[in-house]
Specification:
This protein has helices at residues 10-18, 21-40, 87-90; strands at 5-8, 47-50, 59-63, 66-73, 78-86. The protein is globular and about 30 Å long. Helix content is 36%, strand content 33%.
Length: 91
């Protein structure tokens, strides 16, 4: 059985690299929890919401002040991160 993977867009990667180390660690921790949630339906206290409008079909994961916009592609076993930024800048 193939494992799930996470891809991060170039823009989101740049924002992630610019964050302080403790915020980076929190983002990575939440992404790992997201993979466990998708793969195993492991009940975690993740703040996930389906988006509307421009981002329809995608989801938002809240990580403190940061927001991660992602989609789940089950046929490819892939979680694609489109955007990552602070609340006022991501939408």
């Amino acid at each position: 059985m193939a494992e799930w993977s996470v891809t991060i867009s170039k823009k989101a990667g740049k924002v992630l690299q610019a964050l302080e180390k403790n915020r980076q660690d929190k983002v990575y921790s939440n992404l790992r929890a997201l993979v466990r949630w998708v793969c195993f339906q492991e009940k975690r206290n993740l703040d996930i919401k389906a988006l509307k409008g421009k981002w329809a079909g995608k989801y938002r994961l809240r990580t403190g002040e940061l927001r991660i916009i992602f989609s789940v592609l089950p046929e490819e076993k892939l979680i694609r991160v489109y955007a990552l930024n602070f609340r006022g800048s991501v939408y």
